[in-house]
Amino acid sequence: MEPVYLDNAATTPLAPQVIARMNEVMQQTFGNASTPNYYGRKARAILDEARAVIAKSINAQPGEIVFNSGGSEGDNTAIIMTALTHQEQGKHIITTSIEHEAVLQSMKYLETLGFEVTYLPVNQAGQINVDQVQNALRPDTILVSIMMVNNEIGVLNPIKEIGQLLQDHPAIFHTDAVQSYGLQDIDVRALNVDLLTTSAHKINGPKMLGFMYERADLTLPPLIKGGQQELKRRAGTENVPAIAGFATAVQLNSSKERSEIRQRLQSYKQLLLTLLDQADVEYVVNGPDIAQTTPNILNLWIKGFATSILQIKLDLAGIVVSGGSACTAGSLEPSHVLRAMFGAQNPRVEQSIRVSFNKMTVENDIIKLADALIKIVRAKKG
Amino acid sequence: MSKKRVVVGMSGGVDSSVSALLLKQQGYDVIGVFMKNWDDADDSGVCTATEDYEDVAKVANQIGIPYYSVNFEKEYWERVFEYFLAEYKKGRTPNPDVMCNKEIKFKSFLDYALKLDADYIAMGHYAQLIRDDSGIVHMLRGADANKDQTYFLSAVAQDQLQNALFPIGNLQKSQVRQIAQEAGLATAKKKDSTGVCFIGERNFKKFLSEFLPAQAGEMLTPTGEKMGMHAGLMYYTIGQRSGLGIGGNGKSNAPWFVVGKDLEHNILYVDQGYDNPLLYADSLDATDLSLIAPATIITTKFHCTAKFRYRQQDTGVTVILGDNDDVHVEFDEPVRAITPGQEVVFYQGEECLGGATIDRAYSKTKQLQYV
């Protein structure tokens, strides 16, 4: 029996239509999209088509979409290249303490180069507000990088308000949209973001692929140097079948479908909590009220149960959830997000699990998870 | 009936790899767990834990078992490493592997495995367990005399062994390698690890100096002749030859050895000759006696054999149990370089009876100046 997969914030399965499209393209052409020949043109046509689909999905122009290897590369490029090209104007950067490691490690790297980074703290619900950004802003602030949706607790950051605030400030605004793209509605013009990074495999697309939206008048030099692909903004021959599959994954989630998916996944969150309540499982939701978080991520403190044990027990029972991010040698690192919310000493930092859905999740998955959790909790009590 | 669950401690070495394979073949529900006991992230060198974990992943996938990693860095630091440092501070030579088995592998890891609903834990040690009619577990030497690891397991107690399995204890190392090779395991040809787990292959002296301030002092002959300076008593072990930097400028050309320590006055005693009489003891006192099957020891004085360090030949001894967990041991013949801090481990034939930590050594009832 296939295990129940509820770790979709880590990665999602490929949608069957994506697999079909990738197969189709792989059989159709192998061409290098940058070469001026029969095969290259065929590949180029598919690439252009995919780029147009993706640009439209966030209200951008095709020329503003740079395909890359995914969220980590996008974050590295956006942050490091912005800093390096704007250091004449200043060396101050604002971010939050609950960003993805791809952002935090890029910041750490910039600190070694003499940049100064302000890490906005979060409240106990994992939230920041626009006033904090305003208070941290300085004349020499060159970059603000704040994720749209947090990958561990699903909190939604006030990107639109921050975008408005930054209209009157020259700082570049980057948002890591890896956990929101394809599920939330994103309009880069309305949000007033300059750089936005995504990943294909979080929305039923292929791995090691994503794109960075780069506003047309920005001219960031490439992080990956070499050939002139992607309008000289990212070297390397494009993986055309994967990109075509990505476009298919995006098309599958139209605005109407996104809305339906959000509603359905939100109801799963509520269902899980109701089932746990009915069984008297002692838990607390990490994060704000579930109505204020992304519908696909739920982080729970299961009182008295070490994350590592709980995650393994569920795995052995055929239920896949997340126990935090793997650090060296496969052991779990206590979540930096939960530490930022509650402090390193709080027991919930090491007694929490993350459950995350995607559109292929079904109600029965939630029931199976609840059953398994209840069984584990009762076994310990009994 | 559902299969019995075994949680195997997998180190990324060939012994634990084959242990997991054999258990799987025997029909157990096997789970591999890698223990990360030491944080070497801030070291400039290669992180061996990461490489070892990679090997665990490869082997577990080859065998077809789930694998996980557990972090016991905090437990290891508090219960093994702090003891290790404290012993060195006292001028003794501790055995962290004995402590690691007692406190981590057969305590923290055992507790962890039980939480995962394990019926047994298993380790790739060369030791054998048998259960007698009354349910008491006895520990026998590993079948491969050259690899026998009962010395390191001597402080593990009966209740810790009740649920333990040593799947390769009845095999020769060469057989273990052969099984791994025939199964094509990724670790089949991996070099055996040497040295203490947290120090690895690094320079021991340098490692220790990072944690304990070294206090240089005088190096004297037993008659008080000054031979130079020592770099810190903790760097020297009774009977050790190398590293004194004196050469043959003595009464003869015979090499120099550490023959004693005076912690109070920070003096290192050295003298010539491997067989120097100051290196020979005929009895010792030890504490923290731990018997594997205490119920089977019915007299307070008995004759058996003993090892005073790993891989040493057994010596016949008479054991006299004290009132608490202390013990006096008299040797049938003098033994060289009895070292405070090390374990004295007792055997009756093939059975390991347990051990105690050496405190003092005597020659003809006179205490030797070893700390």
UniProtKB/TrEMBL annotation, chain A:
InterPro entries in the record: Aminotrans_V_dom, Cysteine_dSase, PyrdxlP-dep_Trfase, PyrdxlP-dep_Trfase_major, PyrdxlP-dep_Trfase_small
Catalytic activity line of the entry: (sulfur carrier)-H + L-cysteine = (sulfur carrier)-SH + L-alanine
Domain Aminotransferase class V: 4-367
Keywords: Iron, Iron-sulfur, Metal-binding, Pyridoxal phosphate, Transferase
Domain of life: Bacteria
Cofactor(s) needed: pyridoxal 5'-phosphate
Family (UniProt): Belongs to the class-V pyridoxal-phosphate-dependent aminotransferase family. NifS/IscS subfamily.
Protein name, per record: Cysteine desulfurase
Organism field: Bombilactobacillus thymidiniphilus
Highest classification ranks of the organism: Bacteria, Bacillati, Bacillota, Bacilli, Lactobacillales
